Amino acid sequence: MSSFQKLPGHLLSGWAGIEDHLIKYDILKVNDYMNDMDTLLVFAGLFSSVLTAFAVQTYEMLQPDNMTTTNQLLALGFSSQLIDIPQAFQATLNSARSPVPFSPPITARWINGLFYVSLVLSLAAALFGIIAKQWLREYLQWNSPLSSPRENVLVRQIRFEAFNTWNVVSTISAIPALLELSVILFLVGIVILLWTLDNIVASCVTFIVIVFLGVVSAFTILPIL
Question: Where is the DUF6535 domain (predicted)?
């Protein structure tokens, strides 16, 4: 059993004292995790809404242009009504009647791929956050008023060992990493999208994104060193 920080409260002896000490410790730790999960869930919800707005606008880049399709249909109908037309014009109409199969540009595939992968990761982080909150809530149920302090402490020890065996803390710590990766992919998609629209705006946003990612990387790596 790892050492615990001494908490204020009534000094109880025996199993009752151990039970009181453990429940206070667990409540403090679980509340910290719960607060983190609540913050992550709010951010994941807002971020997913922003991502959805972009994805709805950019998925059309993967589809044929409606105007081009309309022109081809008009050319087909027009050519069927003409009998004597110049040979050059006939060749143009024939090319319109036999269009090349549509293939989206590589930038459209990259943009939509990044946006949708980012959206999936954001939703996955939200789902894992909900599951983690259920785990934590279930973990605290060891302190039953119908059981003796000794039985409660033994049940808590079993759950504590299972908590460590299943690496629940590491799993919870991975949820922010999913959101961070989702944000990075979204920003890369934004940069690629802007480069297809305007070079000046894209240059400014690219510089800001690089600085932002550099600062985030520094804040992530420096505490580990």
Answer: 15-196
